[in-house]
Amino acid sequence: MRERIIRAVAGTLVSVSVLLAVFVHPDWLFLAGFVGFNLLQSSFTKFCPLEYILIKSGVK
Asked: To 5 degrees, how large is the angle CA 39–CA 8–CA 37?
């Protein structure tokens, strides 16, 4: 369940970031870059901050 939530949050943040970049200001693309970098580093380190938060909040 946690993995599904993580994917949903990451996809939502990237989508919202792109929409904000198109309609508000291009600097919002840094958010998409941050999310992408976080996904990349978590694939190597097996550490995801959102997963840690979900574990602490009791999500199985």
From this structure: 15
Assigned token pair, 15: 């989508």
How far is it, in rounded angstroms, from Cα 41 to Cα 45? 6
Question: What pLDDT digit, counting tens, does each position of 10-28 carry?
Answer: 999 999 999 999 999 999 9
**CA 34, CA 13: separation in Å to the nearest integer?**
10
Provide the whole-model pTM.
0.84
Name residues whose C-beta falls within 8 Å of residue 31's C-beta, 6 or more positions apart in sequence: 13, 14, 16, 17, 20
* Residue that has been written with the tokens 């995801």 in this structure: 48
- SS3 helix, strand, coil % of the chain, rounded to 5? 85, 0, 15
